Amino acid sequence: MSNKFKILCLLLLIAIIFTAVINLNTGFLSLDLPDFFSESSNSQIAEIRVNRVLVMLLAGISIPTSGFLMQEYFQNPLAGPDILGITSVASLSVAFYIFFSYNVEFPEFLQNSFLSLSSIVGSLILMLVLLSISRKFQDKSYLVIFGFLISAFAGAIVSLLQFYAENQSLKNYILWSFGANNMVTRNQIYVLSIFILIGSILCFKAVKPLIGNSLGSSYAQSLGVNLNQLKILTITASSLLSASITAFLGPILFIGIIVPHFCRLIYNPAKLWQQWILNMFLGMLMMLFFSIIAEKSQIPLNVISSVFGIPVILMMLLRQNKV
User: Fold this and answer.
1) What does the alpha-carbon distance between residue 282 and residue 255 come to, in Å, rounded to a whole number?
2) Whole-angstrom Cα distance, residue 224 to residue 161?
3) Which residues contact residue 61 at a Cβ distance below 8 angstroms, ignoring those fewer than 6 apart?
4) Contact 90/243 with Cβ under 8 angstroms?
């Protein structure tokens, strides 16, 4: 590893620790150090803030990793976790659950579990469909078009459900779609960690073939890269990573596009192993920073990521047009 890479990682790690500490001290009440380590009147608030930091760290790992995989596989800097419709279908699954389970009485802990499970199951079903459809599409661009069509269809169904929904169901769905990072419990974090661990292991297996794939399909095959296996690894890893975060936090938009873009600007884009590590570090820093803004301004997390992400993507398009 080069000295530049080590310095970048060290600076990002220091910034992550700094923003995490600020995050723990951001809220309506000021907490003392004993509140985080011993029983006190503010212990529950301290636990909520710790959970908030942990889930932001996990989101910072998973969303940029998913975007990194998509962009490297499709060789498109504007590809993101939602390019294959995974995020849209996860939202559709949650919408079905919220709108059709309104009159069904569930214990509170089961309501949260079923909400997350519906998102993950919907995304996994789409993942299986994508893997099946991908065998018929030799050209990657057709898979992207299929993903856009799925996203449009899912969005139309969600709009239809919202039009006929009861007021409370509609409110519940809108609150979920905003991204409620304060509502994630410790048990949910454990489940989320398992999904992200599995997705990260699959990503680890995909990076080396992606290096060969970046040189062209023909050259990759001459190096012994199994392109079909690479496709399966990429789609499965990206699905698990993006769907798990969507399940527990709602759709967090644009982070999976802009973080890999920034990483390519600050370090050699050809070195994919280092790029993946930088994506995770910068993703954690960015999600923690957005969490601080969300707590101070009371603006939903999804709105903040969109307000930040849209201008960046527009600049990316203008930059590409100049090139």
Assistant:
1) 10
2) 48
3) 196, 200, 280, 283, 284
4) yes
What tokens appear for 193 in the block?
């960690």
Tokens 């003392």 found at: 32
Per DSSP, the chain holds a count of helices (H) and strands (E) of 13, 0
CB-CB neighbours of 9 under 10 Å = 16
From CA 199, how far away is CA 202, in angstroms rounded? 5
Instruction: Return the DSSP state at 79.
Output: -
Torsion angle (degrees, nearest 10) of CA 245, 248, 251, 254? -40
pLDDT in tens, 138-176: 666 777 788 888 888 888 988 888 888 777 777 777 777
pLDDT in tens, 208-259: 999 888 777 777 777 778 888 888 898 889 888 888 888 888 888 788 889 9
b/e per residue, 204-241, with b = 16+ CB within 10 A?
Answer: eebbebbbbbeeeeeebeeeebeeeebbbbbbbbbbbb
Q: Which two tokens stand for residue 150?
A: 């799925």
Residue given tokens 């999600």 in the structure block: 287
Q: In the chain, where do the E strands start and end?
A: none
Report d(CA 249, CA 301) in Å as an integer: 9
Single pTM value for the model? 0.87
**In 3D, which of 187, 163, 183 has the Cα closest to residue 175?**
183
Give dist(CA 316, CA 183) in Å, integer. 34
**For the range 302-309, what are the long-range contacts, defined as Cβ-Cβ under 8 Å and sequence gap of 24 or more?**
302/177, 302/178, 302/179, 302/250, 302/251, 302/252, 302/253, 303/178, 305/179, 305/252, 305/253, 305/254, 305/255, 306/253, 306/254, 308/254, 308/258, 309/253, 309/254, 309/255, 309/257, 309/258
Q: Which residue carries 């790029």 as its tokens?
A: 275
